[in-house]
Design a protein that fits this description.
6-stranded parallel beta sheet; alpha/beta; 4-stranded antiparallel beta sheet; Rossmann fold; single chain
Length: 419
């Protein structure tokens, strides 16, 4: 790795749909409690000052930043495997590890949905923001990852408004109906059951209703009061899901349960003859894979979406990347300049004190009370410090690092002589 790329002490390791099939990805899926525990553990890793974990239906990513030289020896993929109690050597080939500028560029594209299995994914921004919020709550977020992720989300919003990524619905639920159309499966007039009342389940139910399906959504009794039921959907008790199977043409499952919501053995006891479609929108999977071996059953999971392609993707990526360059540069400039923030503060402090001292004799010639004169001196000192700091920060905007660094170093030496 080139020297300039090593200056950004940021690394990520990701396992996603590109290299890992669903049966491997689900090994690295993390519940909210798992993510919280891993974030707490990250603080114990030598050389790590910040950590963010992104865990969605198609990816698990472990992001770290650090300051110590020992950070360069860390392998975030190995850290993630250790957290999941899996042998890294068994899974190394499924990981993609990025660092420095490559990681920054990837995150910018990720937040736009350019790295998603469903191109232009509309949900990824909110998923990334939630990951950052959780890291902050667990006190695992340092200033580097805070600024990086904030800049990436801001850039993604700009891309979404400037590039026609949103000319169609890019949600998993919309992709589900697109997949069914591609497979020649009609939804109109079909009896549909959606297992799961989370965000994905509600979106899926709404899409099925929109397509003309008669939709029932399962609901656990203890969640009845807090549940949001999409318009046009009936409710059935989660415990009655097997009993209702024989009346359903399309079954969708989208929960965060670590266990199967439907097993092949119990489903086989309930199903009558006829063609049925089962769609698994969960990672780890909700539907036992053996369901697909039952007569008359067509089973789709998250890997099924890889066959969907959208027109104009390459052109949109090129336009989006051009927009994102500004945000990548903005972060890189901040990163390089951050070590000089204490220097700027010291220069500004010295300038403010010197200005106030030079005006002290002049102020004594005015008929002011001592308290008034002292307050005025403080105001002058503060104002002078702000002006000098603003000028110093302005160097970052108008000069290359190789120019502003020696300039600030020179100003620091000069300010030392003021004291």
């Amino acid at each position: 790795m080139r020297k300039e790329e090593r200056t950004l002490k940021i690394k990520m390791a990701g396992i996603d749909y590109r290299k890992a099939p669903v049966q491997v990805r689900e090994q690295f899926s993390m519940t909210a409690s798992m993510v919280e525990r891993a974030l707490k553990e990250s603080r114990k890793a030598e050389g790590v000052t910040g950590c963010v974990i992104i865990s969605t239906c198609n990816r698990t990513e472990y992001w770290i930043s650090g300051e110590a030289d020992s950070f360069y020896g860390l392998n975030p993929a190995a850290l993630l495997c250790r957290e999941k109690e899996l042998d890294y050597s068994d899974y190394a080939s499924y990981f993609t590890v990025r660092e420095g500028k490559e990681a920054v560029h990837y995150l910018m594209e990720l937040c736009c949905g350019l790295q998603s299995q469903i191109f232009g994914d509309d949900q990824i921004i909110s998923q990334v923001k939630r990951a950052v919020d959780v890291a902050r709550e667990q006190e695992a977020l340092d200033s580097v990852l805070e600024i990086l992720f904030r800049t990436a989300v801001t850039g993604a919003k700009k891309v979404k408004t400037k590039v026609l990524l949103t000319n169609v619905d890019r949600s998993v639920a919309a992709a589900m109906t697109a997949l069914l159309r591609k497979e020649g499966i009609s939804i109109k007039g079909k009896n549909c059951m959606v297992i799961g009342n989370g965000e994905i389940g509600r979106l899926a139910a709404s899409e099925l209703v929109k397509a003309g399906g008669f939709v029932s959504m399962t609901l656990r009794q203890y969640k009845t009061r807090e549940a949001i039921i999409p318009a046009g959907c009936r409710v059935i008790d989660y415990n009655d899901r097997y009993e209702k199977l024989s009346h359903m043409d399309i079954v969708v499952s989208a929960t965060v349960s670590p266990h199967y919501t439907l097993t092949a053995e119990r489903a086989a006891e309930c199903l009558s003859d006829g063609e049925r479609v089962f769609i698994d929108l969960a990672i780890p999977r909700d539907l036992e894979p053996e369901l697909g071996k039952l007569s008359g059953i067509r089973l789709f999971d998250m890997d099924s979406f890889s066959q969907l392609k959208y027109e104009g993707d390459l052109k949109q990526i090129a336009v989006a990347d051009e927009i994102l360059k500004k945000y990548e540069l903005e972060f890189e400039q901040w990163y390089e300049f951050r070590e000089y923030v204490p220097v700027v503060k010291e220069i500004a402090r010295a300038a403010g004190e010197d200005t106030a001292a030079r005006l002290r004799k002049e102020l004594k010639s005015y008929s002011l009370e001592r308290e008034e004169r002292e307050e005025l001196e403080k105001a002058i000192e503060k104002a002078a410090a702000k002006v000098v700091a603003k000028l110093c920060y302005g160097l970052r905007e108008d000069m290359e690092p190789q120019s502003w660094k020696p300039c600030l170093d020179g100003l620091k030496r000069s300010s030392d002589n003021l004291e």
